[in-house]
Every structure is written in structure tokens, then in C-alpha cells.
Amino acid sequence: MNFDFVIIGAGPSGLTLACALANTKLKIAIIEKNITKNFSKPKIDGRDIALTHRSIKILKDYGIWKFINKRNTSQIKEARVLDGDSSKYLSFDHKNTIRDNLGCLVPNQIIRKAIYKEIKDLKNVKIFTKSEVAKIISNQSGSKIYLKDKRIFFSKLTVIADGRLSKIREKMGIYANKTNFKTSMTVFRMKHKLDNYKIASEYFHYNQTLAVLPIKKNLSSIVVTLENAKSKTFLNMSKNEINKKIEQDLKNKLGKMSIVGKKYTYPMLTVYTNEFYRERCVFLGDAAVGMHPITAHGFNLNLRGVSILQNEIKNAIINKIDMGSANVLKNYEKKFKKVSLPIYLATNTIASLYTSQKPITKIARRSLLYIANKMSPIKNAIMDRLLVNN
Ligand SMILES: Cc1cc2nc3c(=O)[nH]c(=O)nc-3n(C[C@H](O)[C@H](O)[C@H](O)COP(=O)(O)OP(=O)(O)OC[C@H]3O[C@@H](n4cnc5c(N)ncnc54)[C@H](O)[C@@H]3O)c2cc1C
Question: What does 187-214 look like in DSSP terms, one character per residue?
């Protein structure tokens, strides 16, 4: 089967790229190992994605945002970072920006459903589900993509978006910088008596990180990160025990709390690929940069990658340049690395600093928060870069 463009992996990154290229004449195939229902009716996975204003604009530009009902979005007015039991916190408030919020939270399955709604009727895109890629062999004229069931696809440019544990990246012998934090993140929702005032809070306690993400006035998404062994103990606690624990950890700031629905747990492993492209193949999404969710950048960065790549491809088409040529792919690598590497390194440092029990790191992080809060240029830079314009 011959295509101009093949995307491997129908996750949010791969599918969004296909939406972005809908208005080109490219014949696009998406190859995905899972069944169609996983994408047309994605299940709740507990993740609430904090989208920046830039990401919302990207989703609007690609025709995806119109499928996200406003009822499913929750504004964040302020973000607070708290260290240990200290009552002082680092605050990022929308009042210090030109916006009336810092961004908004949208459940992951709602975003995925919206992407699928936009993609399913696109004339130039064909999705092949229940199709697992086994290997890729490329040369100057294109790539041969071999499926496990022996089908073969031919493509002028192949986008590899098969997730952070990308087997294809490994098979191609591409090294990736990986950090296993040996921690797990458990997400679930809780009702609470008191208002959360649309404030997102991240509490760095000395043996756990606890985030509270405002969904409704009296409903929040709770994210608990613990060492793997402690995480298992936490998962075995009864609902009552968890309610009491979170009330205590939050010092009753939200009043009486009760867990609703299921808990979802994710291992914390970050990845940064050493090479963003090889002959006629390019890496996108978590397969290129798999972030620690502590700073809520993963999907936002993926969207930046999509935006940069589609721009390079469209420019190549306009200028009648081969879109799979090394120069085009190199430009994507250069631009995306510039955006993603500082955020990746900073996030990993924060994740390590705030999970360490060593006394010296406790002092370091308390000082860091104090300095960042006092010095408005630092705060404004973080705000501008991470929350408003990222
Ligand atoms: C708890 C948690 C909270 C998060 N919160 C945020 C947040 O607040 N803000 C934010 O921006 N991001 C957040 N993220 C990150 C975000 O969810 C991910 O970055 C994003 O979902 C990754 O999308 P992707 O398409 O790159 O990869 P994936 O979703 O992993 O998709 C990869 C696809 O490739 C397919 N595939 C794999 N191998 C093959 C093969 N050989 N052949 C065919 N198909 C294959 C898979 O089946 C899958 O469908 C969070 C993540 C977690 C875990």
C-alpha cells in the first residue's frame, strides 16, 4: 500500500498531526495496533490535562476544539506550589496576566474523543486499526513499513508516534535518555465540602507529592505521587482511610472529602530521544519527549511538536521541496529541541528535587520557592513561559 505519509500510533499526538495536515493533498495512513473503539469511545483514564492558551489555540486551528463541550472544561485561576508543612507558597495568579485564567483542565478522554470526531470524516486520512508495525526499513526514496500480519506499507515520510516506550525507536537502535523515578502517580476524583476557588495546588510533602486540580467548585482531581512500594500500600487503603488521609494532608483546607469513582495509577518514567529523525522517519509525541507530569507539560509539548512539524511539511510543499528530506526534518529537530529540552531538564530537576528526602534538598527547595516568590522577574518568566504563552 502506497501513501505519501504514514503515522504510526493513533494516540493524541499522531491523530492531531493528521488533523493538522487535513487541508493538504497528502494521502495519509495511520497505523494503530489497538481496536477502533479505543479511539472512537475512549475510556476514562483519570488524567485531567491542563491545557495552556497556546494549546487551546492549536486545537482550535486544527478543528478539534469545537468538539469539546465547555461543560467539560474547568478554568484554572491560580496555581500554588507549597513545600512541606510551610504555610508560604509560590503563587501564579491570572490577575498578573492579561488573561482571565491560566488555562483549563480537560479530561484526557474528552480530548481524545474530540480528535477522533474531527479525523473520522477526513477524506485524505485512512486509519488502519488492529495493525501492529513490526519494523521499518528506509532508503533515500522512502520507507517500507512491515506489519506483524505481513502487510507492507510504503511511505515517503513516516511519523513514529508510538508512545514513550517506543519499540520502533529501540529497534532502530536510537538511544534515548531515560529516567525511572521509581515512583507511581495515582489519580482519582474527590468531592469536598469547601470551595476550591479554581486554584490548582501542588503540595510537596516530604514523602509524597499531592496535587489538587479544580474540576468544579466542590470537586477536584487528586494526584498522589509516591515511591512504588508506598504507592501499593496506598492503593490497598479503604475509601474511608483515603478520605481521612487526604483531608489531613490538606490540613482540612477543603473540609470533609470523599473519593468518587476509580483510581488510576501510572509509573513515572521520562524519556528524551537522542535523535528526532532518521532517513525518511521522524519521531513525534511521547516517542520523542516523554515528560514527567509534575509540571503538566506532556501533551502541551506534544502539540508544540505537531505545530512545528506540520509547519515544516507545509512549507516544504509550498516551496516544492521533498518533505522527507533531511533538511526539512533537521529544521523540525532544531526548533522542537529548542522548545522542549529546557522544559524537560527543568521538569526532571524539579521532580528529583521534590521527591528527595535528603536534608540538603529540603533546604534547597524551600529557598528556591522563597526566591522565586520574592523576585518578580523570575516569577514572570516562569508564568510567561510555562503557563500563559507556552
Ligand atoms: C497521570 C498523567 C497526567 C498527565 N497530565 C498531563 C497534563 O496535565 N498536561 C499535559 O500536557 N500532559 C499530561 N500528561 C501527558 C499526556 O497524557 C501524554 O503526553 C500524551 O497522552 C501522549 O500522547 P502520544 O500520542 O504521544 O502517545 P500515546 O498516547 O502513548 O500513543 C501511542 C499510540 O501508539 C500505538 N502503538 C504503539 N506501538 C505501536 C506499533 N508497533 N504499531 C502500531 N501502533 C502502535 C499505541 O497503541 C498508542 O495508541 C499526563 C500523563 C499522565 C500519565
Answer: EEEEEESS--TTEEEEEE-SS-EEEEEE
Q: Which atom of ligand 1 is nearest to the CA of 287?
A: 26
Local structure of 79: helix, strand or coil: strand
Residue range 179-268 in CATH 3.30.9.10: yes
HSE-CB of 125 using CA atoms within 13 angstroms: 25
| pLDDT (tens digit per residue) in 155-185 | 999 999 999 999 999 999 999 999 999 999 9
| 301 half-sphere exposure, CB direction, 13 A CA radius | 28
How many angstroms does the Cα of residue 162 sit away from the middle of ligand 1? 8
Q: Ligand 1 pocket, 9 CB below 6 A?
A: yes
> 306: which residues sit within 8 A by CB, 6+ positions away?
13, 16, 17, 20, 58, 284, 285
Cα separations (Å) of 272 from 29, 79, 142? 26, 27, 25
Q: What is the pLDDT of residues 193-231, one digit of tens each?
A: 999 999 999 888 878 889 999 999 999 999 999 999 999
Alpha-carbon gap, residue 99 to 94, rounded angstroms = 6
Architecture (CATH level 2) of domain 2-74+107-177+270-356: 3-Layer(bba) Sandwich (3.50)
pLDDT digits (tens, 9 = 90+) for 30-50: 999 999 999 999 999 999 999
> Of 56, 61, 55, 49, which is closest to residue 23 (Cα–Cα)?
61
